[in-house]
Amino acid sequence: MTQSLAPAESVLDPAQLVRIEAVHRGYLFQHLCAVQCLLSAATLSAQTVFIETDEDFEIQLDGTRIYVQVKYRKTTLSWGDIDSTMARFDDLRHSHNRKERQGAAQFIVISNSAPNGPLLKKYEADDWPVDVTLEWPESEPTRRILPAPQANLMEAIQETCRLAERLPFATLAPETLVWKLAGVVQLAATGESEALNHAFHAIDLPSLFEQLVMQLQDLPLPPVPYRVQQDEPDLYTGERVRMIVGYSGAGKTSWLAQVAQHAPSPLVYLDVADTPGAALASTVAREVAGRLYGDGHKLGELLLPGASGREILQHISRRLNERGEILTVALDNVHKLPADDLIGLIQAGRDIHFVLLCRPEGEIATIEAVVGVTRENLHGWSPDTVAAAAYAAHCHSDPADCQKLIDLTGGLPLFVLSAISVAGSDYEGSLKHLCSDIARSAHTKEMAQELILSRAIEHLPDTVAEVADLLSLCDAPLTREEAASYILAAGGPKQQIFFRSLRLLQSQGLLLTFADKKIKLHDAVRVVGSGRLALLGETEVKARQEALRNVIYRSLLESWHPAKLTMFARLSGEVGRLDVLVEIATEELFHEMGAWPEVEAYLEQGAQDGTVPPDQRLKALDALAFASMKAGSDRTGSWLDQMDALIMEHNLGSEERLRVGMKRMNFLAGNGDRKGAEILIANLEPVVKRLSPGHQRVFSYNVACAHLSLNDAAATIKLIEPLIEKYYDLIGLTPKLVMGKNAPDLAPMLKAGSDVDDIKHLADSLDVLAKASDAESKFSPIARIHALKFYDLARAPDSLFRVGQDLIDQFIGKHDFDGALNMMETIVLPLLRQWKLADYLVSVRSQYAVVLAYCGRHSDAEAEMDRLSPYKSGLQSLAQRELEDQQNLIADLRRLGPPPKWIPPADLLKSIALEFGNNAETSAMPLRAASRKIGRNEKCPCGSGKKYKKCHG
């Protein structure tokens, strides 16, 4: 049924409607004037404000009583508007003269409108009563006693809110306080409230304001749009006490505000940052009582005279229990509270649920231990969320940019949004340029945050500031013990003082701590610390870099991590250790880590430096040539030519000749030069025979790759199959032993002393066999699955995802769509989530969307592409076109449907099922049965950070 917006018949005549509107405007203006006086009571030195039943008010000063009449007019103020008021003032004056009223009398007429000509003439005449003042917006300020009136109702509201902002209630919106006070004034004028007197005494006003704050304290509105954080906790889990931990800017309050919107039971929120511990229980008790029983019903039974805060909470708790009601009390900034006071509060309200919001500092460890609560962390935004926020702000980014921004900010919403804002204003919307600028610590202008942090560090004790400066060189987390060793080696304070310094840095919010007891200075603070270190001079800085490099080297020997390797490579370059750089840069695994950009410039410089030994220069050129070939760069030929020239000039040996020869062989084969490649193979064979078996295996692999590039699959298979057998034998495994096991299972089975290079070479050889089998139209997924396992074991993520995507394409090419989906969800997506390799985020997940579409899950596929769309503007043009092609393919699959599915033979099904540790007989759909079912509350394998049931479930 539809309904007209205009009423069929007006119940009021227009003149009556105007009168009603005028009356309500006048009353509200009077209420606001009274509220302004209440808010300004301290400035006015007022003792009491009296609200009269006619909506006007009186103010008692020391020895003087001010009578205020408020007039709201749409036109100018005339004598007819105030003649009765002046008569009333005359009666009051006589009453004071007769001593019926105490003190002197002062009379004020407040109006939004200026007096008209005749009234103004009267007001300025000599016979105008000296104790009567007219005040309007343009009146002479020197004659004004009360807050200046405003010209209209909206201006009066704005000014009253400005007055409210000056009160120390930062957690309550000024508008909320204003409207509540206006309601109290209105209620007082009616005389209906037994609990509310017409008189507001100045001494009681702070208590009144506090009471209103307590009654109306509420969560701020969550951001619009609210963006969910990674693994964001639910509000209700069944636990009575929850502890939500996050650094400043992590969005703890926003999270609470968002989940509270959907809370089925009452939630009371209170920021206790500035609450003294001794007053905590009574403060919370008043808050809870005011929110639950604010209408006055039985409120007096709870707020008993002389009752302590804990006793009141116990009373409320019992009442909730009797009624079977659930109440959640959320306390913010509890890290600032003494643990004993907070624990006592929680114990008193034993039937009240508590959510504790805090930073990871203060005495929260004690609270965890005594209360038996386990902290839940807000992990910040995922790359998808960062990309969506950047896209909404008209910024552009690719997955690597989003991940880098997360690395720089911890993914904390406040800092991410600030960074996006800076990117939009100063970097033409480019997150890449912003992140690069921050990472290089080469700002063209000082940002406000940097200035604040600089001042914060300058005010630290000298030893603490020194620790912060030294830690600024660390761009990856260190354990406390590693950091202590570095600080001591760099000439910093001893361990005991160092650990005290860490506590102070942490309490100031300058130090990030991690669950595995690692620490890292906030990246913004690192910028400041690096600048302070630079003032010491290049020699002193390099000495500290060398100390850190040595600690990282020892750490790498104990536990490998990509971030550590990147930092080690960067530090080696900064201190001039080219010998170390060329050694690691010529290892293929190094290029898998994404650390190449950190050292490329150092290697280019070293390769052209005549003072560097020729063998090191050749290795630098070799690393540059390898990286260029991998990237398909046209600089490959130039690097190879320089290597040849260096060999001839310095008459370098067989190993160096083989190094450049194999790369040129593959370079020629890749360009289709069969004759040139075959000549090089023939020339290198006698050289290889004089070298070690390891060199011979590497040569055989490279020859096989050359044959593959020349489209000679049969020759490739003939060479690569015996080579795979040799590598299996070297590491002590067989294909049968590998079946049904993943990398963690295979690691302890390796032959003692196995070389990680041999594991990587085995994976490379299996990959080549799979490609050659593809060329021969042979379906052999086992080779790629084994290659994936060994790449994972060798920690080679770049090859890992390249081969993983090839595996999915192989299944799609055979029209085995269920197999492709199973491979994606059980192997590739979990590995992407594990490695967090940003370069593959879009390509893997867009491929996942295509697989979903082939399996008939069109809505899921389109939703996945929608989540990836914010990344598009930051991608290279080729990647953008690929994304568009995939979107078109998904649309075609919805419209036309997929090709008929291929049913693989039973023996192949069984062998693939074995890969997942399933030795049972396989059915017609074995891959679905073989894979582990994803729980609805587990993380979705797509890497979104959401639960499976809320994403692809």
Q: Your description of this structure?
A:
The longest helix is centred in the first third of the chain and has 26 residues. The chain has 953 residues and is α/β, with parallel strands linked by helices. A hairpin with a 5-residue loop joins strand 1 and strand 2. A six-stranded mixed beta sheet has the order 5-4-3-2-1-6. The chain has a five-stranded parallel beta sheet with strand order 8-9-10-7-11, sandwiched between helices. It has a three-stranded antiparallel beta sheet with strand order 12-14-13. Helix 5 crosses helix 6.
Strand content: 5-15%
Helix content: 55-70%
Uncertain runs are: 1-12, 213-217, 295-306, 442-449, 916-933
Number of helices: 44
Give the CA-based shape.
Answer: elongated
Sheet/helix structural class: alpha/beta
According to DSSP, the number of beta strands is 14
Biggest sheet, open or closed, and with what strands and sense?
Answer: 6 strands, mixed
Strands of the widest sheet, in order across it, are 5-4-3-2-1-6
Mean pLDDT: 79
End-to-end separation in angstroms reads 38 Å
Q: Over all CA atoms, what is the radius of gyration?
A: 38 Å
Search tags:
six-stranded mixed β-sheet; single chain; disordered N terminus; elongated; 44 helices; five-stranded parallel β-sheet; alpha/beta; 953 residues; 58% helix
